[in-house]
Design goal:
The protein is an alpha/beta fold. 42% of the residues lie in helices and 15% in strands. It has helices at residues 20-26, 42-62, 75-89, 105-116, 134-140, 163-177, 198-201, 239-242, 250-265, 267-288, 315-324, 344-348, 353-357, 370-390, and strands at 8-9, 69-72, 96-100, 120-124, 145-149, 182-186, 205-209, 220-224, 292-294, 305-310, 327-328, 334-336, 339-341, 359-363.
């Protein structure tokens, strides 16, 4: 029977709830100061001022100029426009793009779309732990390479890529060929836990999405380093210094900047707390459930990510069973045409179709408690046992 009490939410990589502070910061821009920031009168100028402040807050976190921050509708748009915008702008130099096989579909499908327009894309392999092969990266870059897109942290297995090291490799290749190679990183999952200083990371373009760090849905940003060749893919108005047309989502942007500031202020504390309960969850699953494996790297892993495969069970019944027990989680599989497609990320690690289909992602947040984690394992163990006897 479905439980009525508040669910145990272990799907923070999918989305998060927005905090009261964020909601309160947004409220005036939905009610009194609702003007269009491009208009002249006072309520519009209040909105313009809020936009400028929000941009400065985000720039402070990114260690960038405020003019390098472009507000978007979220991670998907930021990824799409980064890759297409840079590839199109650099087309005269070459048509080669390098990415990895474990990117989010917002990156992979943008690359596939460019392939249909004559671009060539190299999808780099990753190790069995989900880390990009740096030798393969080095040898993949050639004189026609114009864009490299490698995610900071993976959404399914939490693996963290060495972005600064990757940037050094790209810079050396740039010097060797005397051409510009725009380096983009999808930092959507990294934002709440990892350093976002764009100079330390050495990126030209970086994507963020507010709803992954307790901001509202439908708003994000794209950092575009000054002088990075970029053609806007969303056109119409001259907003965002001609890099992204469309009336700005002022309340959403204010919410995002507030959430980002709070996430950074609480980062160290959240990192320590969430990794401690994450480790407890991983250890408890290993102790209590046999025939399971942790997917992804343990060391270079987001503090909130747990991804297990349970031999002999499909991910979907685990999720349905957990839902009935009041636990919200996710599997790596995507439903398509009535069949469960195994995750492209888990397949890229070398998992068999069956093991990839038997995965469960539990993504934690600072509001989760140790009691919740214990309760999840208490429910997961008999659930897996029952599903195994049924299959
Ligand atoms: N990139 C990564 C790594 C993600 O995890 C997500 C969302 O799950 C996105 C991009 C897309 O972000 P949005 O939902 O804001 O479009």
């Amino acid at each position: 029977m479905k439980q009525n009490s508040k669910p145990i939410y272990l799907d923070h990589a999918a989305t998060t709830s927005i905090s009261t502070a964020v909601l309160e910061a947004m409220y005036p821009y939905l009610t009194e100061s609702y003007g269009n920031p491009s208009s002249m009168y006072s309520i519009a100028q209040e909105a313009r001022q809020a936009l400028d402040n929000a941009r400065q807050i985000c720039a402070n976190v990114l260690g960038s100029r405020s003019s390098e921050v472009v507000f978007t509708s979220g991670g998907t748009e930021s990824d799409n426009s980064a890759i297409m915008g840079a590839a199109l702008a650099l087309k005269a130099n070459g048509n080669h793009i390098v990415t990895t096989s474990i990117e989010h579909h917002a990156v992979l499908y943008a690359c596939e779309l460019l392939e249909t327009l004559g671009f060539e894309v190299t999808y780099l392999p990753v190790s069995s732990k989900g880390l990009v092969d740096l030798d393969a990266l080095q040898s993949s870059i050639k004189s026609t390479t114009t864009v490299v897109s490698i995610m900071y942290a993976n959404n399914e297995i939490g693996s963290i890529q060495p972005i600064s090291e990757i940037s050094e490799i790209i810079k050396a290749k740039q010097t060797q060929y005397g051409t510009k190679i725009a380096f983009h990183s999808d930092a959507v999952q990294a934002a709440g836990y990892l350093d976002l200083d764009t100079n330390k990371l050495g990126v030209d373009l970086l994507s963020l999405s507010a709803h992954k760090f307790e901001g509202p849905k439908g708003v994000g940003l794209l950092f575009i380093r000054r002088n990075t060749p970029f053609i806007p893919t969303q056109v119409g108005g001259s907003q965002e210094r001609d890099r992204r047309a469309g009336t700005e989502n002022v309340a959403g942007i204010v919410g995002m900047s507030t959430a980002l500031r709070l996430a950074v202020e609480n980062r160290t504390q959240n990192f320590e707390y969430v990794s401690a309960i994450r480790d407890h969850l991983i250890n408890s699953i290993f102790e209590r459930i046999d025939n399971c494996q942790l997917n992804g790297d343990y060391e270079n892993r987001l503090p909130n990510n747990v991804n297990f495969s349970f031999k002999g069970v499909e991910g979907e019944p685990i999720l349905l069973g957990l839902d009935l027990l009041g636990i919200a989680a996710s599997s790596g599989s995507a439903c398509s045409a009535a069949s469960l497609e195994p995750s492209h990320v888990l397949l890229a690690l070398g998992l068999s179709n069956d093991l990839a289909r038997s995965s469960l992602r539990l993504s934690l947040g600072p509001s989760n408690t140790l009691e919740e984690i214990n309760s999840v394992v208490d429910k997961l163990q008999p659930l897996i046992r029952k599903l195994r006897t049924l299959s």
